[in-house]
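ingest -> validate -> predict -> emit
validate: passed (alphabet ok, no gaps, 159 aa)
predict: started
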Amino acid sequence: MAKETGRKLIAQNKKARHDYHILDTYECGLVLTGTEVKSLRQGRASLVDGFAQLDGGEAWLHNVHIPEYSQGTWTNHSARRKRKLLLHRAEIDKLIGKTQETGHTLVPLALYFKDGRAKVEIALAKGKKEYDKRQTLREKQDRREADRAISAARRRQRT
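emit:
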């Protein structure tokens, strides 16, 4: 059997980029049970309410929904259990200092397989205010309109 290579995206948290200013990102391994891995291989997971927390010098991922494996028996996992994140000690120490600052939190951005191993990308983030969210949407819309205008001008030029 050939080894898996590359990155295969399972779930993405698009709302996190809308609700938070992303300051820094980290790639973490996950401690999972067998049925969780099988469920992830089927491409089923949700990061919507997920967050990471540092507790006792360890990083934990909370509220990430990995549904029960359909062919699982009594060995099945609970869907929203907390899962341990695998980070280097220096990274954990750095995050402990930064998350104690007011308004900083850890949010998962993506869950994926990298070379056959389950990984989660977490971000050190600061919550956006309502006007920041509106400003971001306005900038995105302005960029889209400008791109449309440029492409329309190029089309007119060619004809």
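The first helix runs from residue 14 to 19.
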